[in-house]
């Protein structure tokens, strides 16, 4: 996906969280720069002696905004998704208020006739703007707005006073330079984020079927076992295997076998509509499914539906048309406490049930004895 496309991802997605975490982290060191720089420059250049009220008011305003920004930075990425816009608005306000006030003081320094004051404000301002542009570059609009608000008062004052044309030219040039930097850094940020996401996706995806791979399935199984144990929920695992797949490969070739696996995978994904269902290619011609919050009856229905759809499906590839069947092993338990090795044991039960399904003639769903005993209350989870 192109960098530009991702910049406009909808609010509330995972991308929002990731990007704003980055922005907040990058912006953190800059929060206290404003009052500190201003206080040091106003004191060292003698500006505070001539204008004590203004100097102190600016210190107070910049410090107040720093505190608001700090609180905002702590909570921005932790609030409920529906409150994100308000907190994001407050983040913008803090940034623009800081840059507006500091930029105005820089503009004032141009008119002050105090060379040391204006030089220090110019140097510090240039540094702060460059740092801010770098921090906010994941959001191009924020970075642009920030640079404009910071530098505009200086440009206006320099143009207005007529004898500061050189300074005005310098600030306008600097603004263009920053503009270019925003574009460049924004593009670099999104390209690297995109690469990171692609790599993460590849590491959890099976390239043939685009289903999740075994590693992801194992991680998810552990996580869902934990969650289900904590909430005393049902958890079902299905292990599915294509029947006589060696014969399919031998008869029609490996390419056709691959196509069969893709079409079987497609039936699985289209028949698992719940967002919490996890489906993976466990290896070879074996697939696995986790149905969190689903009891034995529900899991049997799902397994039977999938088995039935695959049995009826005609697999067409090039000039060949054939059918395949699958055998399914199933385990369904209500979990009350998590123990080490629980996910592996549950999977083993489903796998043993699959073995029975093969033994009993294939093209069928067999439920693990562990789950029937558990549903009848004969076995406690702890003794699985
Ligand atoms: N085309 C293709 N074949 C695969 C892939 N992974 C595994 N296989 C084949 O799947 C076949 C599995 O064979 P077996 O384990 O003997 O099982 P089966 O023939 O399906 O017999 P049962 O499972 O007992 O019904 C082997 O021939 C593997 O080469 C794959 O990615 N693509």
TrEMBL record:
InterPro entries: Diguanylate_Cyclase, GGDEF_dom, Nucleotide_cyclase, Rev_trsase/Diguanyl_cyclase. Keywords: Coiled coil, Membrane, Transmembrane, Transmembrane helix. This is diguanylate cyclase. It catalyses: 2 GTP = 3',3'-c-di-GMP + 2 diphosphate. Residues 233-370 form the GGDEF domain. The lineage of its organism: Bacteria, Pseudomonadati, Pseudomonadota, Gammaproteobacteria, Cellvibrionales. It comes from Simiduia curdlanivorans. The keyword Coiled coil applies. Signal peptide: none annotated.
């Amino acid at each position: 996906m192109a960098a530009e496309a991702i910049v406009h991802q909808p609010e509330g997605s995972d991308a929002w969280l990731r990007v704003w975490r980055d922005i907040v982290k990058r912006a953190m060191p800059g929060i206290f720069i404003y009052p500190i720089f201003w206080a040091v420059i106003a004191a060292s250049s003698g500006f505070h002696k001539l204008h004590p009220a203004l100097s102190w008011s600016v210190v107070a305003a910049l410090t107040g905004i720093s505190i608001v920004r700090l609180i905002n930075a702590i909570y921005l990425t932790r609030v409920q998704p529906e409150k994100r816009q308000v907190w994001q608005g407050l983040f913008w306000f803090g940034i623009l208020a800081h840059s507006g006030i500091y930029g105005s003081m820089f503009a004032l320094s141009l008119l002050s006739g105090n060379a040391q004051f204006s030089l220090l404000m110019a140097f510090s301002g240039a540094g702060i703007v460059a740092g801010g542009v770098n921090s906010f570059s994941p959001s191009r609009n924020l970075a642009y707005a920030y640079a404009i608000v910071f530098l505009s008062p200086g440009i206006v004052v320099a143009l207005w006073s007529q004898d500061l044309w050189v300074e005005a030219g310098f600030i306008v040039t600097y603004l263009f330079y920053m503009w270019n930097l925003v574009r460049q850094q924004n593009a670099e940020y999104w390209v690297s984020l995109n690469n990171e996401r692609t790599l993460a996706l590849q590491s959890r995806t099976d390239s043939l079927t685009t289903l999740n791979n075994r590693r992801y399935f194992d991680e998810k199984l552990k996580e869902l076992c934990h969650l289900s144990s904590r909430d005393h929920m049902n958890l079902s695992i299905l292990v599915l295997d294509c029947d006589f797949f060696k014969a399919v490969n031998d008869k029609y070739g490996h390419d056709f076998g691959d196509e069969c696996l893709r079409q079987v995978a497609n039936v699985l994904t289209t028949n698992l509509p719940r967002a919490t269902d996890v489906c993976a290619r466990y290896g070879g011609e074996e697939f696995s499914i986790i149905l969190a919050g689903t009891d034995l009856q529900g899991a049997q229905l799902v397994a039977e539906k999938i088995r039935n759809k695959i049995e009826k499906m005609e697999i067409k590839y090039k000039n060949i048309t054939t059918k395949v069947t699958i055998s399914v092993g199933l385990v369904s338990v209500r979990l009350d406490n998590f123990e080490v090795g629980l996910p592996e044991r549950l999977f083993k039960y489903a796998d043993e049930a699959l073995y029975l399904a093969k033994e009993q003639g294939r093209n069928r769903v067999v439920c693990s004895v562990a789950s029937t005993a558990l549903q009848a209350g004969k076995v406690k989870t702890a003794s699985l």
